[in-house]
Amino acid sequence: MLDSLLSFSRHHKMALLMVLDALLLPLALLSAVLLRLGGAWDPKLDPYLWIFAVPPLWVIPIFVKLGLYRAVIRFMDDRVVTTVFYGVTLAVLVLTAVIVMARITPFPRSSILIFWVFAMAYIGGSRFLLRGVLRNLDAGQRARAPVAIYGAGHAGLALMAALQSGRDMKPVAFFDDNPALWGRIYGGVEVYDPARIPELVARKRLTQMLLAIPSASRARHREIIEALEPLHVPIQRVPRLADLVSGEVRVEELKQVDIEDLLGRDPVPPKPELLSANIAGLAVMVTGAGGSIGSELCRQIVKGGPRRLVLFELSEYALYAIDQELARLAPDVERVAILGSVTDRARLTSVMRAFDIDTVYHAAAYKHVPLVEHNPVAGIVNNAFGTDTCAAAAADAGVATFVLISTDKAVRPTNVMGATKRLAELCLQARHAQQERSGGGATRFVMVRFGNVLGSSGSVVPLFKRQIAAGGPVTVTHPDITRYFMTIPEAAQLVLQAGAMGQGGDVFVLDMGEPVKIAELARRMIHLSGLEVRDAAHPDGDVEIRYSGLRPGEKLYEELLIGDGVLPTEHPRILRAREYHLAPDELAGYLERLAVACEALDAAAAFALMREVVREFNAAEATRDWVAGATA
Predict the structure, then answer these.
(1) So what CATH class is 272-613?
(2) Which residues in 395-441 belong to E strands, given as ranges?
(3) Which of 373, 389, 443, 514 is 20 to 30 Å from the Cα of 604, by its Cα?
(4) Residue 324 in this model has a pLDDT that exceeds 90
């Protein structure tokens, strides 16, 4: 019978609730009168029995108007008490008016106040009773996973309420750093000392830990996650406070723990004057606008109030995607989407002149080390000659500032990709030196060098996530390989600020924090997924870490500097490097010979010239061009 009731339509359920209230309201009034009369009925009230049938006639319309019957019982919250309070109070006032106007003198006046109490209890209590029955039925039909919430503040309590009304998770414990909260009980859930987490994970068989501290710093998130990692309990988190305030997400929308919560640092707030110096009121162009770094630069740039933003991109789909995203993000900013290659000088010059470009951020590059290693000519043409061509176009068009996005792989490179980026730096340094020798030019050439960014296309973190989800193995090239990591938004902000500080020919390096051992990163990601690493010590583990050997041109350790020292800048995480450069005439000779080799698709000659011009290039033995190899 209960199942058939639950299968009723929404309108039928509303009608049943109205019938229930039509019975409970007369019962509440009768209970109030009998209580006031000491349990004995007064015969003088016999002519006025009709008064007990009157309350539903005006109370139910009041409840309808207040929306009481629109609330879904299963997901009803405590706000229903407010609705019932207003409805019952209005009902009592109307009842009082009826009794006074009808001159029902035998009716005990004090029973009206008692009726208010009984009506609140009957109407409100019936809702909560029904809600409890429905939730118990749900729990019986589908066992809910026991979970704990870390953080008993506003976000934690809101998360608890959301989960208690759901059908998947059952909050059974709170943990909080504040000792004043330990022992308190919210909604039947007790708050515990975080030191008891290992004990309660086992005793309550917790299946997940939910972090409900959206306003905590990234450093605090990292401390908590590192403490929880050995327990092998999956961790999810409530979105950050900025996302909650903006309305983009709700508190019950849990997310997987971002890897930046484990690796990242708390970002230094940007300096507004540096962030906007090359953007506010200016025409800005981003090459490679659809890439990981280029697209984030565009997102940051539109916040700075540019006069115009030109998106220059070779990939049609990538250009379409970032253009559509920016249309939603900043509809008031003028955008121009241009298809083109950074090796096309005429196209670049015409675009920069047509749109009166003030600042260029050059993010167009081939960056995947193994791919460029086996396609060296394409890498040289795009990364090195593409940068020089773009810089020449900027000088021709009178662009004020040209910023190259470089990489830590340009430092003592062991692969073609790193060598091409170092050659790109040398090209800009030579152009700056040539301008100085000729009495100065209109364009400042600035280079910004940093390491890996979290979440970029082809980066290791998304790869590890896919491998863990598939059950492994997680592939790491070498047990000792380490890398620097930074979030894409922080890297983009630092690039914009560094570009504003350059005087010309500057090489800036970003403070990337501490290097991370990739094998340890893989191990932590497996643990944070609630799984065990399968190795000699744990043969029954879930996911294996398999070492595949260093790829061609891959380093064990990345560096950020070629020289021996750096100079500080006005930003604590941006340093100015002191690097060597080649004389413009010397570099021009190398470039001329290199261009001939690339035009002839002579990979061997181009590779040999790269080793000459980039003096610190320690080329890998396994490097070879796929096409040349197949032809041979």
Answers:
(1) alpha beta
(2) 401-407
(3) 389
(4) yes
